[in-house]
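USER: Study each token:
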Amino acid sequence: MNTNQKEKHSRQKDTMSSSWLTSRNRALSSVSTLLLSILLCISEQSNAQSSPVFACDVTGNPSLAALGFCNTGLKIKARVTDLVGRLTLEEKIGFLGSKAVGVSRLGIPAYNWWSEALHGVSYIGGGSGFSGQVHGATSFPQVILTAASFNVSLFQAIGKVVSTEARAMYNVGSAGLTFWSPNVNIFRDPRWGRGQETPGEDPTLSSKYAVAYVKGLQETDGGDPNRLKVAACCKHYTAYDVDNWTDVHRFTFNAVVNQQDMADTFQPPFKSCVVDGNVASVMCSYNQVNGKPTCADPDLLSGVIRGQWKLNGYIVSDCDSVDVLFRDQHYTKTPGEAVAISILAGFFDGDPKKQLYGDLGPKDVCTAENQELARDAARQGIVLLKNSPGSLPLSPSAIKTLAVIGPNAKATVTMIGNYFGDPCKYTTPFQGLSETVSSTYQPGCSNVACKEPDIGSAAALAASADAVVLVMGEDQTIEQENLDRVDLYLPGKQPELVTQVAKAAKGPVVLVIMSGGGFDITFAKNDEKITSIMWVGYPGEAGGLAIADVIFGRHNPSGSLPMTWYPQSYVEKVPMSNMNMRPDKPNGYPGRTYRFYAGETVYAFGDTLSYTKFDHRLIKAPRLVSLSLDESHPCRSSECQSLDAIGPHCENAVEGGSGFEVQLNVKNAGDREGSHTVFLFTTPPAIHGSPIKHLLGFEKVRLGKNEEAVVSFKVDVCKDLSVVDEIGTRKIALGHHHLHVGSLKHSLNITV
């Protein structure tokens, strides 16, 4: 669905394969599970309503009390069996769309399953919306910027606020209970229009984000594991990261993915969603993988999601993707067969105001605390990429006049990316900066396409000001769902505008990049007149306040890039349709992401600058890990490069089981308070096409000036130090592994 086209906002996802919300029981059949969900949590949203409509309203219709499925004293399976027995075939079929048809004779109202909550409650899908009672909801930064904070507790806190606002809206009939978020696809190619929706290019970061956000959405304050606050959905399963690039379209694209890349890059976030996050649902994607539509592949659905990972929930198809199987991919003979394939490959208490969260309402949406969290999330994610001596932070007392220039300087809707709802309010970059110092605005370009820049006016303003802030970048006309980029340059004549304004300026020049993806801004990186560069993603409703907080030093920047910024030359030789992660040197293919690409970058994954300095010192880490093998193990009598990452040897390694601890001392050696992400990378032996390095874990710490702290990482040898071989099997690489933290390196030898 294209979020800029209103007529598509209400398009139904009539291809759902099953669902439920509260009690989850793997033993139930697919149809029974679906019907149970409708029984327990169904509602009908309408902007005119002041309360939700629900099934088994025995107060409004006392005759329903005689129905077995409305008897809360019965066991769930008995209630489901009763309901199934009462439904006609046509009524059962009516439950299989995104808009489930109601059954009035049984007191079951209609329900729209499709709501979105990517970074706040959205109106997209039609299951949720805004009305006179609830005018808007807190709009947090787009996911890619939140991920740049590398703060797991923040990920979960945002999810918790979003679900609280969703339940508050549900209680007045303005929202559903099933939200098709988060997007945990890997940001594999910098041109992808939907990369902004994801946590970035790294499987570890994406997995940690997925689990934390899902828990924030789903977990109840009462702690009942059988009940959900709202139902989350991890999408788009799997290997989906091409929308519309040159002549390649997601509806017809066949992602050719080898077993190795599938296992160590594309699948981990989804596995974490299911196994660690206990997500309620997984959405299969539009594309094919190795010749099979993902929504019709029993190996990916029944075999992996349900069989290996034990999904305790339902599988849903993406917008019209079952129709795509028939109409665009020609995978089935008839539309009916297409529906049947999806269904076969997947599986399917009273007044909510009297239950947990029943007291929530409009007063709990857009609270001061929630809006402050949106501001803080943006601050934590903002990445400082360049900072010359004497540039940032700007001194409010020294800066008497500030020139704010650029097509995104007065951005509103641009700041909330896509899959948005109506925000509580906007604070533009210009407004945020103007609250601190006297500021003057010039757009420089009429829009981000910047075909005819007004360089003269912008340069004149820059020459008259004490400092300049250029707010450039993109919006959804350049990158979005169904629109991938074709190059990595700033759009149009933005580079020319930036260069000429910087040349005319008499004081510091701060370049602020607002975007989802990265750019080749080598020209700005190397221009001495451009004294600072900040990437602010799409910073959400409070973006202007957060940008000003960083520029004027009220907040010390601590965000780190969650994706590589490549030079333009990279995309000129790498087709977006090539899914291979690892390099193919004989054919000139350089590989993808920091894990496999060793070439030139503009900025690297994890790059960050701060207004202070942090030092690391290793306290504890083993030099040797010895794995104990059974007498019959073949590697006892012959040399092996690797071992299977399962087996008794995984329980018999040093330091108790297969794990050990890495301890580090982290010190703030600067003169101001700041937060810092401690990254623990590992470089395995060069076997099985192993990564150049891989993110093992990360921790965010906040330290006052000259303060220090101990940061610990628990390392599981078989899980964290294993690599994936050519057929997708996890192996423990024997030999020397290198642990990296900042400039520190530590060698660790794994032997048998």
The radius of gyration is 27 Å. The longest helix spans residues 152-170. The first strand starts at residue 99 and ends at 100. The CA atoms of residues 239 and 503 lie 44 Å apart.
